[in-house]
Amino acid sequence: MDYPLLNAFLTMFWLFLWILWIFLLVKVITDIFRSQDLGGWGKAGWTLFVIVLPFLGVFVYLVAHGREMSEREMTRAREQEQAIQEYVRSTARVPSQADELGKLAQLRDHGDISDAEFQQAKAKILT
């Protein structure tokens, strides 16, 4: 009997596994070259092992270096987060109390707010 729905499901399942495998292979090869712990010959050996015997090579690499791989990934994520935070701090300047008081004084001088409103806003800024 022919089951077209089952065949479509199995085809999509194998396609998903194949894409997942390629992603994992690229991730491992990228980690090999980013590793500071391995020397040139170590990187060459692991790369050759992963290319010649991919399933066994990836499995052994993940067993041998999985924890270090995740630590490197977490360190890289922390560094990126710090860089983003530093960028945000440098570009989004928070106005200081002096800036706010200067704006209030300008509004009062131009007659846009009264002295009572100025004192109220000034008390709010200084608290």
Automatic annotation (TrEMBL):
InterPro entries per UniProt: CLS_N (IPR027379), SHOCT (IPR018649)
Localisation per UniProt entry: Cell membrane
Stretches that traverse the bilayer: 5-24, 44-64
Membrane topology: Multi-pass membrane protein
Sequence ranges assigned to domain Cardiolipin synthase N-terminal in this UniProt record: 19-63
GO terms under cellular component: plasma membrane
Keyword line: Cell membrane, Membrane, Transmembrane, Transmembrane helix
Pfam families found in the cross-reference section: PLDc_N, SHOCT
Statement: the UniProt record of this protein carries the keyword Membrane: yes
All residue ranges annotated as the SHOCT domain in the record: 99-126
Tagged with keyword Membrane: yes
Identification of the protein by name: Phospholipase_D-nuclease N-terminal
